[in-house]
Design goal:
The structure holds 2 protein chains of 2 kinds. Chain A is mostly helical. Chain A contains 8 helices and no strands. Chain B is built from 15 helices and 2 strands. The chains are: A mainly alpha, B mainly alpha.
Chain lengths: 213, 453
């Protein structure tokens, strides 16, 4: 069983890495987003392999179901971004290489140096505690109450900000009228016509004929 | 399945191969079950809608047109597969697969009968929500990969609808999580044993006098925790009969209609506006794959609604047969599977009925409906569900001394909880509906001025 898990781990890890490399090297930005999704899926599979079912499902729900859909939406609403003329490397690409590499090294080197790799196997006959909804709920409401509340406030602020932005935009925008409303509006415009200025009459007349033709 | 295979060929193969074969067999059975139902659903939809519109519907191929789906399948298989020259070949090819696969994965955790569940996942409800969200990626791929403005518009509409209706659906499912105290779908039908409205709260007076055909042993909801009790069980303690379950069911079913793109919400493929939405550039088997994905999604969502609120496979006689033991357990399983299938078909019939009865919504009506009506109702329902659990199960220590219901019998507590939640839910529903029906006069005048000036 252990070798099987190792094989599965290697397969998933290779899949994640390959997807991630494709994400950053592929020219088409929509393809990059799709490769990113497959990488997210691989991470979810790794969580499932570790029997962290809740985490694996939450990974799929949040990253694949929400984040990547948002990314795809953003890309598709800004169509100018895509195209093969995009440069992949800026002139100062080496700075962009050094900084993340140094940060990653700062994390990985102490971990590799100090971590006890040979974990003791779990005691036989005792099933490991599988994190269910109730344990997670209890943990959120007891031990991790403060981080939970802080995250909640952060998300709330972001949500209110999004609503405020959307409302400002909406004030400037006219609602799209249905056909019945357009007809009624046109009739209203045609009815009064109390001797307007010549220019305005011309515009209105052209609008009226444009509507009828 | 695994155990049966182990007993047959236990020594010959390594254990993991047996597990693999067992799950492959289960997967095949479940997929055939779903696809068989899909075929019948297409036929039923065409016939029933035709009946509602005073037509005949397909009636040439086979008796009453029953073989029409087979003729359609042959047509689909032999049709030319057209890919637009400007389309993105790979994305265009993968999109139907990406939209069908998550839908098929949803079927894995639904208990199809008593003891007939493919996988016992302890986060099954969350899993279904997560997996159904993935199909949005497939729709996006279809819309973008086709390189067609109608397809892209349809995909945008589809995903916007999917994302916004997921929220009321998940909030409605949260009431189930609260009532059940967990996210496993496996336990839900067992918890919905008993009699309508009261659930499994009418307990047996003396253990000797209770006939096993009427009483079953219940451990969790809503008797005393952990202690098994004998409760009157007609298999009808469905949550839809309680105020919390009824409101949750209505909200979830409407949201499921929108997620499955059924007719009042079929904006993404509104054929009179944007050809066929994201499916515009698909033909032959790829189109059929989208079609299958949509119907199996409806099937799975009906199964989920039935399991979460209508008792799943629970029905009169299942527990009594199972209590008889021996081979009768298998009869009970078959009967329970029949009950679930019957509930799914009733729900699907309601879907067809709505299609025959309602016109398509506009996009702004769609969003208003989700955010101003369904979501507040579902949020109120969460409060009601928490009160329901508190009133039926908590001891006075858990209430912190605020309220002591320890002296009451389970059925009395259930009655109190039902009264309280009914008052809350009816008041909230009345209030929210009356707010939504108030006309917005001022906005009208302002807009007309803007356009007129």
């Amino acid at each position: 069983m252990n070798t099987l898990i190792t094989i599965l781990f290697v397969v998933f890890a290779a899949f994640i890495l390959a997807s991630a490399i494709m994400t950053v090297t592929v020219k088409n930005i929509v393809h990059a987003a799709l490769w990113l999704i497959s990488s997210f899926f691989g991470v979810g599979a790794l969580y499932l392999l570790m029997e962290a079912e809740f985490l694996g499902v939450a990974q799929v729900l949040i990253y694949v179901g929400a984040v990547s859909i948002l990314i795809l939406f953003a890309i598709m609403l800004t169509r100018d971004l895509e195209g093969s003329q995009n440069r992949q490397l800026t002139p100062r690409w080496w700075i962009a290489l050094i900084v993340p590499a140094a940060l990653f090294g700062l994390l990985i080197v102490p971990t590799v140096m100090t971590y006890a790799w040979q974990l003791p196997p779990p005691p036989a006959g005792q099933s490991p505690a599988i994190s269910g909804a109730q344990q997670i709920g209890t943990a959120f409401m007891r031990e991790y109450l403060l981080p939970f509340e802080v995250a909640a406030i952060l998300l709330l602020v972001a949500m209110i900000g999004a609503i405020v932005i959307a409302f400002e935009e909406r004030e400037r925008r006219r609602r799209v009228l249905t056909l019945a409303e357009q007809v009624r509006l046109r009739r209203q415009q045609r009815q009064p016509a109390p001797l307007p200025e010549p220019a305005a009459t011309a515009i209105q007349a052209s609008e009226a004929t444009g509507g009828e033709s | 399945m695994t155990d049966i295979l182990r007993s047959w060929i236990g020594g010959a193969l390594p254990d993991w191969v047996i597990v693999l074969i067992a799950y492959l067999l289960v997967t095949t059975i479940v997929l055939f079950y779903a696809v068989g139902n899909f075929i019948m659903m297409v036929w039923a939809e065409r016939r029933v809608v035709a009946r509602m519109q005073d037509r005949l519907g397909p009636n040439r191929v086979g008796p009453a047109g029953l073989l029409q789906p087979i003729a359609d399948a042959v047509k689909m298989f032999t049709k030319e597969d057209i890919v637009p020259r400007s389309a993105d070949q790979w994305v265009h090819l993968l999109a139907p697969i990406v939209s069908l696969a998550p839908v098929a994965m949803m079927l894995a955790v639904i208990p199809w009968g008593r003891g007939w569940e493919p996988i016992d996942l302890n986060v099954a409800l969350l899993y279904i929500v997560a997996v159904s969200a993935v199909s949005g990626v497939g729709l996006m791929m279809a819309g973008w990969g086709s390189n067609n403005k109608f397809a892209l518009l349809g995909a945008m509409r589809a995903v916007a609808q999917l994302v916004s209706y997921e929220i009321p659906a998940v909030t409605a499912l949260l009431t189930v999580v609260i009532l059940a105290g967990g996210m496993s779908l496996l336990e839900l039908p067992y918890m919905q044993a008993g009699v309508p409205l009261m659930g499994a709260t009418i307990l047996c007076g003396d253990a000797a006098g209770c006939s096993p055909s009427l009483y079953t042993t219940v451990t969790s909801f809503p008797g005393s925790p952990g202690e098994p009790v004998q409760a009157l069980d007609l298999g009808l303690g469905w949550w839809v009969f309680t105020p919390v379950g009824l409101l949750g069911f209505i909200v979830f079913f409407i949201a499921a209609l929108a997620e499955g793109e059924r007719t009042p919400f079929d904006i993404p493929e509104a054929d009179s506006e944007i050809v066929a939405g994201y499916m515009t550039e698909y033909s032959g088997m790829k189109f059929a794959t989208f079609y299958i994905a949509q119907y199996i999604l409806n099937f799975a969502l009906s199964a989920l609604a039935a399991t979460a609120f209508l008792g799943g496979w629970q029905g009169p006689g299942v527990a009594a047969l199972a209590n008889m033991g021996g081979p009768w357990v298998h009869v009970a399983a078959a009967l329970s599977a029949f009950y679930l299938l019957a509930k799914i078909w009733v729900l699907f019939f309601v879907m067809i009925w709505l299609r025959g009865a309602f016109p398509r919504l506009r996009v702004d009506q769609l969003m208003d409906f989700a955010w101003k009506l369904l979501l507040p109702l579902a949020l109120v329902n969460i409060v009601s569900a928490s009160l329901m659990v508190g009133l039926t199960q908590w001891t006075s220590a858990q209430w912190g001394g605020l309220l002591s219901l320890d002296g009451f019998a389970p059925w009395q507590r259930q009655l109190i909880a039902i009264l309280v939640t009914a008052i809350i839910n009816i008041a909230a529903a009345y209030w929210i509906l009356s707010i939504n029906q108030r006309p917005t006069q001022e906005e009208w005048i302002e807009e007309e001025l803007v356009v007129a000036s």
